[in-house]
What does this fold into?
Amino acid sequence: MAENKMNNGVAVTGAVGTVATVATAVIGTTLAAPLAISAGVGLAIWGAVELFKSSKE
It folds into this structure.
């Protein structure tokens, strides 16, 4: 009986680990897009400001 409980515990731990891994991957993918977009927008704004500065000189 104890062995059966241990096996169930290992199975549950494995399932939780899998769910956590999938959740992390989904969150990572979900956050990656806005981060990439905001980085692109930030670079575009910075580039525009630099161009504006150099055109005034």
Notes: Helices lie at 2-56. Residues 20-57 form one domain. The first helix runs from residue 2 to 56. Residues 13 and 19 are 10 Å apart (CA to CA).
